[in-house]
Design a protein that fits this description.
about 425 residues, mainly alpha, Glycosyltransferase, three-stranded antiparallel β-sheet, two-stranded antiparallel ribbon, binds glycine
C-alpha cells in the first residue's frame, strides 16, 4: 500500500511520482482534493452505504465459504434457479471470490479471514501454468495478487511470476497484442482480442516490477497502445472483439460477442476499458493512458442511456431500453475505476468522477441491488448480466460484480476522513 496525495491507494507504483514535479503535484493535488475530503467527511449517505455494503459483504462471503468448504477445488460462479453454480480454477471467474475475501481481510484485519482467503486462493495454484487464454491475469491477480499485496508471501509471488510468463506466451509481436481466446467462432476470427484483455495487463506490470524484466511491461504497453488504436471509435466507445489478420497484423474484423450488436457499446466492455486505462496510467505515468481514461469516463458518464441511478443497462444501445436488464458488474467496475481516476487526475474533472462513483455505490448498496442477508446464494449483489446473446447468466449475481463492488467500497472508504 502506498500513501500518495493523502490517499492510501491500492497501488504499488511510484513512476508517476518520479515523473512529476513533487511540488506541483502536492500543491495541485492538495488544492484539488481538499474539497473532496471535506465533502466526504460530512457525507452521511455515502458512509452509511459503505458500512452497509461491507457488513453485508462479510455476511454473504461467510455464507459462500460455508457452502464451498467441503467442495474441494470449487469456486463460485453464479446463483440461478435456486442453485449455486460453481466452477473449477480454470474458469475465468475463479479468482474473484478469493479476491473478495482478501479485501474483507484488509478491512477487518481478522486472521481468520486471512486463513479463509488463503484457503480459497490456493485452489487456483494450477492456473499459473495456463497458456490457453488471456484470463490468467484476472484469475491470478485478483486472488494471488491481493494475497501477495497483503502478506508479501514469496510463494504467492512465484505463482504470479509464473502466471505472467504463461500469459506472455500469448503475445504476437507482429500484431503487438496478446491473443484473448483460442476459439475462433467457427473460423471467423484469426486472432481475437477483446477489450476485457486490458484487465490482464496488471499482472504483467506487476511481473515487470517484481522480476526486473522489462519485457513484461513492454508487452503490456504494446497491447494497451494497439487496443487504443483499433478497439476505440471516435466517440471513445469500444468494440468488444477485434480480430487481427495474422499475415498483415492488421484488424480484419471488428464486432461483438457478448454485446447487443457489432456497433453497440456492450456495457461491461466499456467498464473494462476504462478500468484498464486508469490502471495503465497508474502503472506507467504515461499521460496518453490518462487522456484515454478520461475520454472513456466522459463518454460513459454523459451517455444518454445512462439511467439516473447510474447502474448501466447491459448494453448502452439496446433498443428495448428502459425495458431491459441492468448489469451491476458494469456499474461496480466503473465505480472502482472512477474512484482511482479521481485520485490520479489533477484536473478539476476529478471531483466529477468521484461524485459519479459515489452515486453508483449508494445505489448498489440499496435494497434494489444489495442481496438480503443469507439470500442470493451468498453473492453480494443482484442483477448482473453475463452473456445475454448466449442466453446465459441473465439477471443473476456474478462473482466479478461482487469483487469490483467490494474493491470500490474499500477504495472509497479510504477517501473518507476517519
Ligand atoms: N471477460 C468476460 C466477461 O466480461 O464476460
Amino acid at each position: 500500500m502506498k500513501i500518495r496525495n493523502g490517499f492510501i491507494l491500492n497501488t504499488r507504483n511510484e513512476n508517476i511520482m518520479k515523473r512529476s514535479s513533487l511540488l506541483i503535484l502536492l500543491v495541485g493535488a492538495f488544492a484539488a482534493l481538499i474539497p473532496l475530503f471535506l465533502k466526504n467527511k460530512e457525507d452521511k449517505p455515502l458512509k452509511e452505504a459503505i458500512e452497509r455494503g461491507l457488513q453485508r459483504a462479510e455476511k454473504q462471503a461467510l455464507v459462500m465459504a460455508d457452502s464451498l468448504k467441503n467442495r474441494e477445488g470449487r469456486l463460485p460462479k453464479t446463483f440461478s434457479n435456486g442453485r449455486l453454480q460453481t466452477c473449477s480454477c480454470y474458469d475465468w471467474v475463479s479468482g474473484f471470490y478469493p479476491g473478495v475475501l482478501w479485501y474483507l481481510y484488509e478491512e477487518n484485519g481478522n486472521e481468520e479471514w486471512k486463513a479463509l482467503a488463503d484457503k480459497f486462493t490456493s485452489r487456483l495454484k494450477a492456473v499459473q501454468h495456463v497458456t490457453t487464454n488471456h484470463d490468467v491475469g484476472f484469475m491470478l491477480y485478483c486472488s494471488y495478487g491481493n494475497g501477495f499485496r497483503l502478506t508479501g508471501r514469496d510463494d504467492y509471488r512465484q505463482v504470479l511470476l509464473t502466471g505472467a510468463k504463461s500469459l506472455s506466451t500469448r503475445y504476437n509481436p507482429l500484431i503487438k497484442s496478446l491473443r484473448s481466446w483460442d476459439f475462433t467462432r467457427n473460423g471467423l476470427w484469426q486472432f481475437p482480442v477483446i477489450i476485457d484483455n486490458m484487465m490482464n495487463l496488471e499482472l504483467l506490470m506487476f511481473a515487470a516490477k517484481e522480476s526486473g524484466d522489462s519485457r513484461f511491461s513492454e508487452i503490456a504497453e504494446e497491447h494497451a497502445r494497439t487496443t487504443m488504436k483499433n478497439h476505440y471509435r471516435d466517440d471513445f466507445s469500444s468494440y468488444h472483439v477485434v480480430s487481427y489478420d495474422t499475415i498483415s497484423g492488421l484488424p480484419h474484423l471488428k464486432m461483438t460477442h457478448q454485446g447487443y450488436s457489432d456497433e453497440s457499446s456492450w456495457a461491461r466492455g466499456q467498464s473494462w476499458g476504462l478500468y484498464g486505462y486508469v490502471m495503465m496510467f497508474r502503472e506507467t505515468g504515461n499521460e496518453v493512458y490518462l487522456r484515454q481514461a478520461k475520454h472513456i469516463a466522459d463518454y460513459l458518464m454523459r451517455h444518454p442511456n445512462m439511467p439516473s441511478d447510474k447502474i448501466p443497462y447491459w448494453d448502452y444501445n439496446v433498443p428495448d431500453i428502459p425495458d431491459t436488464y441492468r448489469d451491476v458488474s458494469a456499474a461496480a467496475i466503473m465505480a472502482s475505476a472512477l474512484i482511482e481516476l479521481s485520485c490520479l487526475d489533477e484536473s478539476p474533472a476529478a471531483s466529477s468522477y468521484l461524485d459519479f462513483a459515489r452515486e453508483q455505490l449508494i445505489t448498489l448498496s440499496s435494497d434494489e441491488y444489495l442481496a438480503e442477508e443469507g439470500s442470493n446464494g451468498g453473492f453480494i449483489l443482484k442483477h448482473g448480466v453475463g452473456f445475454l446473446p448466449g442466453n446465459s447468466e441473465i439477471d443473476v449475481p456474478l462473482s466479478y460484480a461482487d469483487y469490483y463492488y467490494v474493491e470500490a467500497l474499500v477504495r472509497m472508504n479510504r477517501l473518507l476522513v476517519k
